[in-house]
């Protein structure tokens, strides 16, 4: 979920196998799934117009925004009048025709929200050469809805494409997407309810060894050193659920096993995804730095699987 602007920084992925060999990117919030194209790695973040980070082999650097401030799609303000271009929690996935970028249009504390879709043939094309194309609205929410249409996370499994999303209200939802358009496949069908808790958001589904793992955040973000975010998980044999935690409690009934909480200076970890590199997995997330005024930063930690459950190791 939203909220902090980001500054340019660097993070070495070539060195992630060595302990503490990477550097943190300051002021990154809600990092997307990390994807690769033509040898470069890309990550998208919450920010004005959606922030873009690029790694060209050694270091991450700021690579502009998806939407220039004067080129925001008109429907943003039409559907969410209070939004001034600060777009939250993007996710990116490769499609048949290039790349799809999903993102949130909202204002803090309200569920008058929308998830939008933008497309581009190549991530590496210059903005002037190939601007991101607005593909419209995927789903909306309002005061009469039981969910909040933010925090999209997209997964391709078999011949299907699914999007989990949600924040507070009635928790985490799931809808199927059309593989040709990237939009909802069945807009008239209700969403699947995957998880609920008093403070829950930022879903991410990962497929591993015949199971679907639903990662979520519990707690509050965006409060610097006072943030209470922690990453929880459950698993299911079906992408639509039910997801159970290690104790067998359904996530729709408040279940969720702890994956990562505050560790020393690394406060309120959140908005997780998984990066696979060099036959290893890494939990990509942001945290609030207790030794740097609570600034939000990007971090990768080694992820292993023990008895069918994710375990995060220290860097």
From TrEMBL:
Involved pathway(s): Glycan metabolism; L-arabinan degradation
Residues engaged in binding substrate: 30, 109, 148-151, 167-169
Protein name: Arabinan endo-1,5-alpha-L-arabinosidase
CDD domains in the record: GH43_Arb43a-like (cd08998)
Keywords in alphabetical order: Glycosidase, Hydrolase
MF GO annotations: arabinan endo-1,5-alpha-L-arabinosidase activity
Highest taxon of the lineage: Bacteria
EC number assigned by the record: 3.2.1.99
Annotated site (Important for substrate recognition): 271
Site (Important for catalytic activity, responsible for pKa modulation of the active site Glu and correct orientation of both the proton donor and substrate): 151
Pfam families: Glyco_hydro_43 (PF04616)
Claim: Hydrolase is one of the keywords in the record: yes
Coiled coil: none
Entry-linked Gene3D superfamilies: Glycosyl hydrolase domain, family 43
One BP annotation, GO: arabinan catabolic process
Protein family: Belongs to the glycosyl hydrolase 43 family.
InterPro entries: GH43_arabinanases, Glyco_hydro_43, Glyco_hydro_43_endo_a_Ara-ase, Glyco_hydro_beta-prop_sf
Active site residues per record: 30 (proton acceptor), 201 (proton donor)
